[in-house]
């Protein structure tokens, strides 16, 4: 058994759409779902170009001032994998066998399909393919067709085809139709509303020939898609060699070796593989909530990038981290315009977006999550701390300042301190509350950071005093009687959710209960106060009390939840519990625990599984360029071996249960 | 000057659309806007049939469980007023003079238009018309056309025409397109989605003839529209005589005579006239927010009926009141289904609806206004108290019980008492809060009423104990330091709105600021705590403190606000202030103070102006069949004379400043 090879035996749900997601390939620009070579009803092929979207007006049942105006939907471009095949003019086939082997070490997918006619003529379809990390315009395929038990006329046609399917069901609010009628002019395609274009350079293959039993037809195809009109013409072999080399480099500095659990080992590599694949590299694209593997969440970028994905990149792939942060710098003007439109100073980043404009059509669980401003600042700070790349921060300091200004205007000073009202924290089962603990803590950290930065750069020194003062006086709610950190001003006053009488099939709650019913109860979708406890130093006894209070109220209906609870359980020394949470996060998509991996991977959770290992079991942190670890290994894991890059220096770390 | 005749001189805004609304006629079933006889671009003709709507799916930018599923939009049916005219084959005319006289005493509208060709040939178009209160299917017109300064060929064609215009602008969330393509089969018209039908019986007129200078062409037309297929064939003269008799009866028992201000006298009669005209009479229709005079709010029924309109009907037209309450009885099954869908026991009435199903597409200012349950119960209780019609209440007691059950499930018992969370009170500039004072007080009153009723009828006696107990323990928030009633748990903690830096053109705030910005501030759209103070006995010093606190925070952006502040100012003995509020309410549409009377009258405010006079200046109340009054007349009003019907007995009351 090779822990870098993922096969169908490794996955819990072998539905066609699930396979298409899990075995999808991507290179940060292009993403390709592993759809069936011969079209099938249940198949949902997909080729996505990161940041390529179509826009259309959002229709509201009842509109109001300042609502997001346009949807942005990542377009499903083509089907580049399907083949038209006939044997002696018979073109109906039964798929009698399928084997798939994703070689994560090399970044190459190897598939074999046996197709059979009614008469029993069987053809073997072998495909090796990859989205090139060397030339990010390329999806490369090498095809072998072998006549297993017949001789006859074989006709093969393989070319790019239009997409005509849609993932998901009408009701699910998390997925939208991504098929769009593009305007074609030669090899240029334009989305009519967004005006965005791309160019293609496609090989095609179309032949009819007599094939002897046992004979193999072989050919390669390169499909190129790019925002630029110019293409180079690389060879399959050259790209394949580069691909293997690039992946070798990747694993050398980003792998985590787990001794003790081979399924977990493969699970974590699967996660790192997808993280490396789907991250935008050009400063104008970012990391879609579902990577480049499916249509879920319309290819939008959320706070997931900063709070769940960037730690992995910052510690192991700082260049990618820098590119993802540059994206925020590039959309800062949109964030400034948004704050102004809403009547506030500074900048407010969009809750969900591709081009920087707010596209969340439900503000209580969208725009109201203003914590995104502080999340972004937090990631900039972490990047600086780990990489030592102070120049990047200094150059882009206006982002930190403008987002800090927003807090000063959105919040206000009262007798109780600096308060921030009418926000939604990470927990989307509680909305539009006052003084959400996570938000206030994050804003406080942000304001301190902005004040330090301004002082260092000798900029806005008068404002910096206000930022510091507001941070110092930040209101933090605490319930003296319960000795519990208040998630917000009203949370502890709410009616407890009746978990006892909520059958399992009523989860996730959001698909079965009206927001009013959910919001009025003590029930959490995901880590909220506990997420803040992962990030900040708080007396461990307090974290324990809060954990014991909030965890039983958490449904984990969000895929962003379990990994965080796992890290904090490690922090509390509850290794058994931490392992349980970690395991569910680490193999969430492999086992399809959320039930919707078919719509795309849960990228944030994949980043969360890295946090679970590195922040959790290894207890990693960095202060002043010094790495410290704490050994929180559960009994199931004998050792962890991984590399981090601190201020340009690669350090291999081993956490070993024998040395605990 | 006759205070029953309304002319163009009496109104503040003489735009075409404003005139169409103010001089509109209706009979509870049919409503007809006073549109121009010869079509003009700015004209928006309208014929509405109460409760006749088309439905279509509500599209949400982001959907969620339990959202309202369908729009219901009152249909603008025909243009029954326009005429096609030519003189010697010239059919372009200039409108050179228009006079309009609404005889409110008789319920008849008299109009005269002078139309002129380019050559100066002038024709006088005189129209007397009414929507019959005797035969509610009929819109009757008597037309005289006089050749003023020419002899020639006059061609006249007058028939029902399709509607092709839409009121209002795209952005305004308060108005939707009401023109619908109906399916016609003979004289039967069907709205394709709702499946509702109506029948027509239309006269038409089409003639070309030579007319001598000074000669008059006269004809009458009856247009009949009905949900039933059968029509009677009344004569114009017969219907006119009945109309005059019916209006004489109406004024005899519903008029208010004001001595001291003729403009106000006319204003209040104008309001009573429209109230009488637009109220549904058949138990299946109700009172649209804009009456039957325009497309605003899509012809929907709100809590306006119970809290603003029913007092007038209960005290002066109890049969109409009974019909409006019967509508709620008829849609109770829909309210039960809605509560169940949301996951609660009992019944929850729709915030806005025609057929009983929720059609509010923005739940924070829709479904969350659960106080509508208690508002309806309050109206039933008032009806019983004033009319003594206990049989009606006993027969329909399930409505009171089912809506009470909802409170027990939606609220919960905590250490603080019985709490009701996640509601929106009357003030729509504050949403999704806990323990809104108005809601809790109204729910308390409702639960007491339900408990008394159950005890009397010996039904649900065990539940009745719980209802009583929850009412007794109802949590009422009070700020000890400020000595102010808390509008809700968080209101007094919010940041004050910056009124000083809000220019006048930024009102109403809802059209210029995002809900998040509005909700997080201390700012009110309308009376909230103060509305509760109008309804319940509270120590007068407390009312005064609350009034002085909340009134300066109130924008009165809702037309439901000023009348209530006026009544409470009277209660406080602040007659001058009361008069100022009352006056703005009483002539709100005549002077177009809200700026959108063109979309239809503000019916609730019209009912509010009755409250201002009768609850406010006359201090009327009834206990145990006994009327009491308190003389709160302001100096501008010398006396008030009006009639109320208490337990079937008409009582004329005079409030006289000399006897103060």
TrEMBL record, chains A, B:
- Residues recorded as binding substrate, renumbered to this chain, are 303-304, 525-526
Q: Which GO terms describe its molecular function?
A: carbohydrate binding; glycosyltransferase activity; hydrolase activity, hydrolyzing O-glycosyl compounds
Q: Which UniProt keywords apply?
A: Glycosyltransferase, Transferase
Q: Say yes or no: keyword Lipid metabolism present.
A: no
The active site lies at: 428
Which source organism does the UniProt entry give? Candidatus Enterococcus dunnyi
GO terms in the biological process aspect are:
carbohydrate metabolic process
The record places domain Glycoside hydrolase family 65 central catalytic at: 269-610
Q: Which Pfam families match?
A: Glyco_hydro_65m, Glyco_hydro_65N
Q: Which family does it belong to?
A: Belongs to the glycosyl hydrolase 65 family.
- Domain (Glycoside hydrolase family 65 N-terminal): give its ranges: 18-166
Is the keyword Glycosyltransferase assigned to this protein? yes
Q: What is this protein called?
A: Alpha,alpha-trehalose phosphorylase
